[in-house]
Give the backbone structure.
Amino acid sequence: MTKIQDNLIKLQCKECKRVNYWTRKNKKKVEKKLEAKKHCEWCRKHTLHKETKK
């Protein structure tokens, strides 16, 4: 695993539980789990996406 992949996280839809997005975060500075309202192509609407384990 390289340094670039160390801070890579998955964002999972809270309604259908599918992983739709990948993003990065600085784990030393950001302690909370990321949450974002993103478009889910499976639900076909904007839903809350939350950070999950790898």
